[in-house]
Here is the input.
Amino acid sequence: MHLCCGRPARVLMSYSLILTHPGGSHKDEFLACCLMLAGHAVPIVRREPTAEDLADPAIAVLDVGGEHAPERGNFDHHQFPKDHPPLCALSLVLQDLGVYEDARAFCDWLEPAEWLDTRGAMETSRWLGIGRDTLAKLNSPIDVTLLRRFASVSRLEPGEPLWEVMRWIGSDLLGYLKSLRSRLDEIAATGEFWEIESPNGPFHVLFMPRTEPLPDEPSSGLGRFIDGHPDGQKIVGLVYPDRRGQGFGLSRHNDHPRLDFTRIEGCEDVHFAHARGFVAKTSATDPARLKALLSLAWQ
Here is the structure.
Protein backbone atom coordinates (compact mmCIF):
# COMPACT_ATOMS: atom_id res chain seq x y z
CA MET A 1 0.00 0.00 0.00
CA HIS A 2 1.38 3.40 -0.99
CA LEU A 3 0.56 6.59 0.87
CA CYS A 4 0.99 8.42 -2.40
CA CYS A 5 2.87 7.88 -5.60
CA GLY A 6 5.07 10.39 -7.35
CA ARG A 7 4.62 10.37 -11.13
CA PRO A 8 7.16 8.22 -12.96
CA ALA A 9 10.34 10.21 -13.43
CA ARG A 10 11.29 10.97 -17.01
CA VAL A 11 14.78 10.35 -18.27
CA LEU A 12 16.87 12.85 -16.32
CA MET A 13 18.82 15.55 -18.11
CA SER A 14 22.56 15.89 -17.97
CA TYR A 15 23.41 19.46 -17.02
CA SER A 16 26.73 21.26 -17.37
CA LEU A 17 25.61 24.42 -15.52
CA ILE A 18 22.95 25.54 -13.05
CA LEU A 19 21.74 29.11 -13.49
CA THR A 20 19.54 31.13 -11.15
CA HIS A 21 18.74 34.80 -10.64
CA PRO A 22 21.08 37.36 -9.06
CA GLY A 23 20.26 39.56 -6.07
CA GLY A 24 18.45 38.46 -2.94
CA SER A 25 18.11 34.74 -2.38
CA HIS A 26 15.09 32.81 -1.16
CA LYS A 27 14.60 29.30 0.12
CA ASP A 28 12.92 28.02 -3.04
CA GLU A 29 15.71 28.63 -5.57
CA PHE A 30 18.38 27.80 -2.98
CA LEU A 31 16.85 24.38 -2.31
CA ALA A 32 16.11 23.85 -6.00
CA CYS A 33 19.82 24.38 -6.67
CA CYS A 34 20.66 21.97 -3.83
CA LEU A 35 18.53 19.26 -5.43
CA MET A 36 20.14 19.84 -8.80
CA LEU A 37 23.60 19.54 -7.28
CA ALA A 38 22.66 16.13 -5.84
CA GLY A 39 22.63 14.77 -9.37
CA HIS A 40 24.93 17.17 -11.20
CA ALA A 41 28.33 18.20 -9.83
CA VAL A 42 28.44 21.43 -11.85
CA PRO A 43 28.94 25.15 -11.17
CA ILE A 44 26.10 27.47 -10.14
CA VAL A 45 25.92 30.89 -11.81
CA ARG A 46 23.70 33.69 -10.52
CA ARG A 47 22.71 36.07 -13.34
CA GLU A 48 19.81 36.77 -15.71
CA PRO A 49 19.48 34.09 -18.39
CA THR A 50 19.86 34.81 -22.08
CA ALA A 51 17.68 33.38 -24.83
CA GLU A 52 20.56 31.01 -25.58
CA ASP A 53 20.58 29.81 -21.94
CA LEU A 54 16.87 29.04 -22.08
CA ALA A 55 17.26 27.16 -25.36
CA ASP A 56 20.21 25.09 -24.14
CA PRO A 57 19.04 21.81 -22.53
CA ALA A 58 22.44 21.43 -20.85
CA ILE A 59 21.78 24.50 -18.66
CA ALA A 60 19.31 24.18 -15.78
CA VAL A 61 17.60 27.57 -15.36
CA LEU A 62 15.90 27.88 -11.97
CA ASP A 63 13.42 30.48 -10.65
CA VAL A 64 14.08 32.88 -13.53
CA GLY A 65 13.45 33.08 -17.27
CA GLY A 66 9.66 33.15 -17.33
CA GLU A 67 9.30 29.59 -18.58
CA HIS A 68 8.52 26.15 -17.20
CA ALA A 69 9.90 23.75 -19.78
CA PRO A 70 11.54 20.81 -17.99
CA GLU A 71 12.41 19.18 -21.31
CA ARG A 72 14.84 22.08 -21.79
CA GLY A 73 15.83 22.34 -18.13
CA ASN A 74 13.83 25.50 -17.41
CA PHE A 75 12.03 25.74 -14.06
CA ASP A 76 10.37 29.10 -13.42
CA HIS A 77 6.99 29.77 -11.83
CA HIS A 78 6.72 33.56 -12.00
CA GLN A 79 4.71 33.42 -15.24
CA PHE A 80 1.91 31.41 -13.60
CA PRO A 81 -1.35 33.36 -13.02
CA LYS A 82 -1.86 34.83 -9.56
CA ASP A 83 -4.60 32.31 -8.72
CA HIS A 84 -2.40 29.34 -9.66
CA PRO A 85 -1.95 26.80 -6.83
CA PRO A 86 1.21 27.67 -4.85
CA LEU A 87 4.15 26.18 -6.76
CA CYS A 88 7.69 27.53 -6.64
CA ALA A 89 10.93 26.59 -8.41
CA LEU A 90 11.59 23.96 -5.73
CA SER A 91 8.18 22.38 -6.44
CA LEU A 92 8.94 22.19 -10.16
CA VAL A 93 12.31 20.53 -9.64
CA LEU A 94 10.77 18.02 -7.21
CA GLN A 95 8.12 17.25 -9.84
CA ASP A 96 10.80 16.73 -12.45
CA LEU A 97 12.60 14.28 -10.17
CA GLY A 98 9.36 12.34 -9.66
CA VAL A 99 9.29 12.87 -5.89
CA TYR A 100 6.96 15.84 -5.46
CA GLU A 101 3.97 13.93 -4.07
CA ASP A 102 6.18 12.13 -1.57
CA ALA A 103 7.81 15.43 -0.61
CA ARG A 104 4.39 16.99 0.02
CA ALA A 105 3.43 13.97 2.14
CA PHE A 106 6.68 13.62 4.10
CA CYS A 107 8.14 17.16 4.32
CA ASP A 108 5.82 19.23 6.49
CA TRP A 109 7.83 22.37 5.73
CA LEU A 110 7.31 22.20 1.93
CA GLU A 111 3.78 23.58 1.59
CA PRO A 112 4.49 26.61 3.85
CA ALA A 113 7.65 27.25 1.79
CA GLU A 114 5.54 27.23 -1.39
CA TRP A 115 3.07 29.66 0.15
CA LEU A 116 5.79 31.99 1.42
CA ASP A 117 7.43 32.21 -1.97
CA THR A 118 4.25 32.67 -4.00
CA ARG A 119 1.89 34.43 -1.58
CA GLY A 120 4.15 36.31 0.83
CA ALA A 121 4.40 36.39 4.60
CA MET A 122 1.06 38.06 5.40
CA GLU A 123 -1.09 35.70 3.33
CA THR A 124 0.91 32.69 4.48
CA SER A 125 0.40 33.71 8.11
CA ARG A 126 -3.35 33.93 7.56
CA TRP A 127 -3.35 30.54 5.82
CA LEU A 128 -1.45 28.99 8.75
CA GLY A 129 -3.74 30.68 11.25
CA ILE A 130 -0.90 32.45 13.05
CA GLY A 131 0.23 36.02 13.50
CA ARG A 132 2.86 37.54 11.24
CA ASP A 133 5.12 37.98 14.28
CA THR A 134 4.88 34.25 15.03
CA LEU A 135 6.09 33.42 11.53
CA ALA A 136 9.10 35.68 12.03
CA LYS A 137 9.97 33.90 15.27
CA LEU A 138 10.47 30.66 13.32
CA ASN A 139 13.38 32.09 11.31
CA SER A 140 16.65 30.23 11.86
CA PRO A 141 20.14 31.77 11.77
CA ILE A 142 21.11 28.77 9.65
CA ASP A 143 18.63 29.86 6.97
CA VAL A 144 19.68 33.49 7.23
CA THR A 145 23.41 32.79 6.88
CA LEU A 146 23.14 30.27 4.05
CA LEU A 147 20.81 32.49 2.01
CA ARG A 148 22.91 35.61 2.65
CA ARG A 149 26.12 33.86 1.64
CA PHE A 150 24.44 32.44 -1.48
CA ALA A 151 23.15 35.90 -2.43
CA SER A 152 26.66 37.37 -2.13
CA VAL A 153 28.25 35.22 -4.85
CA SER A 154 27.91 35.28 -8.63
CA ARG A 155 29.42 31.83 -9.20
CA LEU A 156 29.94 28.71 -7.08
CA GLU A 157 32.33 25.97 -8.11
CA PRO A 158 32.57 22.35 -6.92
CA GLY A 159 34.84 22.14 -3.89
CA GLU A 160 33.90 25.54 -2.48
CA PRO A 161 32.46 25.24 1.05
CA LEU A 162 28.99 26.61 0.27
CA TRP A 163 28.72 24.47 -2.89
CA GLU A 164 29.58 21.36 -0.87
CA VAL A 165 27.06 22.21 1.86
CA MET A 166 24.37 22.74 -0.77
CA ARG A 167 25.12 19.39 -2.32
CA TRP A 168 24.86 17.76 1.12
CA ILE A 169 21.44 19.35 1.61
CA GLY A 170 20.16 18.16 -1.77
CA SER A 171 21.57 14.65 -1.36
CA ASP A 172 20.16 14.30 2.16
CA LEU A 173 16.72 15.50 1.07
CA LEU A 174 16.56 13.07 -1.85
CA GLY A 175 17.97 10.29 0.32
CA TYR A 176 15.32 10.95 2.97
CA LEU A 177 12.48 10.81 0.45
CA LYS A 178 13.71 7.64 -1.22
CA SER A 179 14.54 5.82 2.02
CA LEU A 180 11.22 6.76 3.64
CA ARG A 181 9.29 5.60 0.58
CA SER A 182 11.20 2.31 0.71
CA ARG A 183 10.49 2.01 4.44
CA LEU A 184 6.76 2.65 3.95
CA ASP A 185 6.63 -0.04 1.27
CA GLU A 186 8.35 -2.41 3.70
CA ILE A 187 5.85 -1.60 6.46
CA ALA A 188 2.96 -2.17 4.05
CA ALA A 189 4.39 -5.56 3.07
CA THR A 190 5.21 -6.88 6.56
CA GLY A 191 3.17 -4.94 9.14
CA GLU A 192 -0.08 -6.13 10.69
CA PHE A 193 -2.99 -4.30 12.28
CA TRP A 194 -3.97 -6.13 15.46
CA GLU A 195 -7.31 -5.79 17.23
CA ILE A 196 -6.65 -6.36 20.93
CA GLU A 197 -9.39 -7.57 23.24
CA SER A 198 -9.36 -6.09 26.74
CA PRO A 199 -11.66 -5.93 29.78
CA ASN A 200 -11.75 -2.18 29.08
CA GLY A 201 -12.83 -2.64 25.47
CA PRO A 202 -11.10 -3.49 22.16
CA PHE A 203 -8.40 -1.34 20.58
CA HIS A 204 -6.01 -1.49 17.61
CA VAL A 205 -2.22 -1.44 17.28
CA LEU A 206 0.29 -1.73 14.45
CA PHE A 207 2.62 -4.73 14.81
CA MET A 208 5.97 -4.97 12.99
CA PRO A 209 7.59 -8.42 13.00
CA ARG A 210 11.32 -8.93 13.30
CA THR A 211 12.96 -9.04 9.88
CA GLU A 212 16.48 -9.63 8.64
CA PRO A 213 18.23 -7.38 8.25
CA LEU A 214 16.65 -5.31 11.03
CA PRO A 215 16.26 -1.60 10.21
CA ASP A 216 18.63 0.70 12.09
CA GLU A 217 15.56 2.21 13.79
CA PRO A 218 12.70 -0.33 13.71
CA SER A 219 10.09 2.26 14.72
CA SER A 220 11.01 4.65 11.89
CA GLY A 221 8.23 5.49 9.44
CA LEU A 222 5.46 3.89 11.48
CA GLY A 223 3.73 7.18 12.27
CA ARG A 224 3.85 8.29 8.63
CA PHE A 225 2.44 4.95 7.50
CA ILE A 226 -0.43 5.11 9.98
CA ASP A 227 -1.26 8.72 9.06
CA GLY A 228 -1.61 7.73 5.40
CA HIS A 229 -3.56 4.51 5.90
CA PRO A 230 -7.36 4.59 5.58
CA ASP A 231 -7.70 2.71 8.87
CA GLY A 232 -4.93 4.64 10.59
CA GLN A 233 -7.29 6.63 12.81
CA LYS A 234 -8.03 3.42 14.74
CA ILE A 235 -4.42 2.84 15.78
CA VAL A 236 -3.48 3.75 19.35
CA GLY A 237 -0.27 1.76 19.86
CA LEU A 238 2.84 0.33 18.18
CA VAL A 239 4.72 -2.94 18.58
CA TYR A 240 8.13 -3.17 16.90
CA PRO A 241 11.40 -5.10 17.30
CA ASP A 242 13.75 -3.89 20.02
CA ARG A 243 17.02 -3.02 18.27
CA ARG A 244 18.91 -3.60 21.55
CA GLY A 245 17.53 -7.06 22.25
CA GLN A 246 15.53 -9.96 20.92
CA GLY A 247 12.20 -8.72 22.27
CA PHE A 248 9.89 -5.88 21.30
CA GLY A 249 9.18 -2.26 22.08
CA LEU A 250 5.65 -1.19 22.97
CA SER A 251 4.60 2.44 22.66
CA ARG A 252 1.67 4.76 22.35
CA HIS A 253 0.72 6.24 18.98
CA ASN A 254 0.10 9.98 19.16
CA ASP A 255 0.48 9.68 22.94
CA HIS A 256 -2.91 8.01 23.34
CA PRO A 257 -3.75 8.42 27.07
CA ARG A 258 -5.48 5.04 27.51
CA LEU A 259 -2.28 3.07 26.93
CA ASP A 260 -0.30 3.17 30.17
CA PHE A 261 2.67 0.84 30.22
CA THR A 262 3.34 1.41 33.92
CA ARG A 263 0.47 -1.08 34.36
CA ILE A 264 2.78 -3.87 33.12
CA GLU A 265 6.06 -2.82 34.74
CA GLY A 266 5.76 -5.61 37.32
CA CYS A 267 5.54 -8.36 34.70
CA GLU A 268 8.54 -10.68 34.70
CA ASP A 269 9.11 -10.34 30.94
CA VAL A 270 8.92 -6.51 30.97
CA HIS A 271 12.40 -5.12 31.67
CA PHE A 272 11.60 -1.44 31.17
CA ALA A 273 8.52 0.75 31.47
CA HIS A 274 8.90 4.52 31.36
CA ALA A 275 7.63 6.31 34.45
CA ARG A 276 5.31 8.39 32.25
CA GLY A 277 3.81 5.24 30.77
CA PHE A 278 4.28 5.94 27.07
CA VAL A 279 6.80 3.19 26.21
CA ALA A 280 7.95 -0.21 27.46
CA LYS A 281 10.39 -2.95 26.45
CA THR A 282 9.70 -6.66 26.78
CA SER A 283 11.63 -9.86 26.14
CA ALA A 284 8.39 -11.50 24.99
CA THR A 285 8.28 -12.54 21.34
CA ASP A 286 5.16 -14.68 21.12
CA PRO A 287 2.29 -12.69 19.54
CA ALA A 288 -0.20 -14.05 22.08
CA ARG A 289 1.95 -12.79 24.96
CA LEU A 290 2.48 -9.41 23.32
CA LYS A 291 -1.27 -9.04 22.90
CA ALA A 292 -1.78 -9.99 26.56
CA LEU A 293 0.67 -7.30 27.71
CA LEU A 294 -1.05 -4.71 25.54
CA SER A 295 -4.43 -5.72 26.96
CA LEU A 296 -3.13 -5.24 30.50
CA ALA A 297 -1.81 -1.78 29.58
CA TRP A 298 -5.18 -0.58 28.23
CA GLN A 299 -7.27 1.38 30.71
